[in-house]
Amino acid sequence: MVDNPSATPEDDIDFQRLDTDFHRLVVHGQLFELYDQMLGEVDVVQVLHHTTQVVRQVLEAERATTYLVRPDTQELVSVATIGNVSRTIRVPIREDSLAGYCALTSRAFVIPDAYGDLSSIDPKLRFDRSWDEMNQYRTRDVMCAPAAFKGELMGVVQVINCRLRPFRETDLLPLQSVSHFVAYALYHAKLHDELATLKFLEREKAEFMRILVHELRAPVGTSKSLAAALRYVNQEDPKLDSVLGRIEARMDELLTLVDDILRLSQIKEGRPLGDIDVYDLVIKTGADCEAYLDEATANGLSLSLDLPASPVLVRIDLQAYHLILSNLLSNAVKYTPAGSVDVRLQVQAPWAMLEVQDTGMGIPEAQISQIFAEFFRASNARRSQIPGTGVGLAGVKELVERFDGELELASEEDRGSAFTVRLPLFEGED
Question: What confidence tens digit (pLDDT) does each residue in 52-70 have?
Answer without folding.
Answer: 777 787 788 898 888 888 8
